[in-house]
Amino acid sequence: VVGGLGVAALHAVALPFLLPALRKHCLPYVAANAEQMELLTAAARRRNLRRVVDLGSGDGVVCVELSRRLGIVTVGHELNPWLVWYSRLRARAAGVHHLCTFHRGDMFDADLTGADGVALFVVPAMMADLEAKFARDLDVDAVVLAARFPLAT
């Protein structure tokens, strides 16, 4: 019985990290590094952003750090329930839980209403689909902060 529970627990923890490989766009979890956070913070400060949505928010570091450093409202969207849970804990520990919200769900279904900035750490294969979403869902003045790869246009 104990062995079976251990296997079940291992599956419950590991599956959310492995299932993205089976989706149309495989987006592995990779945390943002300090240099990337400095660049994102500087860009958000320069543009005077007030509400940033992080698509594929992972461990929540982008939302938490932007809220902590700039005092702005951030919203993270992440498929992995464990990372959403961890992000919420991280925001509470940093004292910015009143500024950060995290949702479990597909980034392509994320509500971008009112966002003046969107942060992305995604793979090149996703850019065309995301660009179509931005054209539909973002205000014309909104800024896309693509941290690793540029948009096609």
Automatic annotation (TrEMBL):
It comes from the Eukaryota. One of its GO terms (cellular component) is mitochondrion. The keyword Cell inner membrane does not apply. Transmembrane segments: none annotated. Residues 1-23 form the signal peptide. One of its GO terms (molecular function) is protein-lysine N-methyltransferase activity. Keywords: Methyltransferase, S-adenosyl-L-methionine, Signal, Transferase. InterPro entries: FAM173A/B, SAM-dependent_MTases_sf. GO terms for biological process: methylation; regulation of mitochondrial ATP synthesis coupled proton transport. The keyword Amino-acid biosynthesis does not apply. Belongs to the ANT/ATPSC lysine N-methyltransferase family. This is Methyltransferase domain-containing protein.
